[in-house]
Amino acid sequence: MENNQIVNKLKTYLYKGGFSFKNYPQKLRYIKKFNAKTIAIHDPIISLDNKRLIEICNLIIKNKLNIKWECETHLAHVNNELLTLMKKAGCSFMSVGIESANQEVLSTVNRKFQKWDQAKEIINFCKKIGIRTRGFFILGLPEDTIKGSFASIKLLQYLNLDAAKFNLPIPIPNTLPYYQGLDLGILSKKEMKENPDNFFEKLGAHHDGNDLSLSKKISDNQLQNIFKVANHYASMIKTENLIHRLSKYLKIIIYKFFIYFEEFTKKLKYN
Fold it and tell me: Which of 122, 140, 181, 207 could form a disulfide with 186 if both were Cys (CB 3.0 to 4.6 A apart)?
């Protein structure tokens, strides 16, 4: 089969489901021409249709593309047989959306998968066959709590992922978190009308003092400190250096102190 035919067939499978990526066909076309060794497939529903993913894997194997690739998927959509085929086709890294260990938070974002023992089995199987895994978590969504956020951090440790990425809410216009933020009064309708440029610019900017908690049970300051705690735990996955680990534990203790001290002062204020 000619390279262009391979690319066109891959493109057909990758674009099913309404996803299109500008210039992506050109990148695929040059996999062999430029001897590409690694590609990233940014299709969050690539495993939603197992038949489509199986055909993609078989196409890569059949045409001996000899590439390493990574993808995004959901733990509910993969099994050992599919993962084995993905590995054979060159999959070396898989990102999965965990989001939160807090059931109420998962309900607000329409995530129903909470079979963490099953998730751990899948992740362990990935380790066994040589596919590295990364989990995505979100802190500070509506209905999140301090306890729920720390439960998500504990879940990271339980699942034994190879890497983790903690994110804070970005209430993109016309998404559920955006409307929830407006309804709860966390996002300012007045500012949106009077100064829309500033309002929308702040939504996507992440830095100290600008991050928004979409939960009324966690203040913005508390969320920033929880975020720091989570990232220190996530970074410890990658380091075995005792001094570095002790340094991170010390910082975690300090950030936790600020989190719970603010919680204590809030209770004093309302009692």
Answer: 181
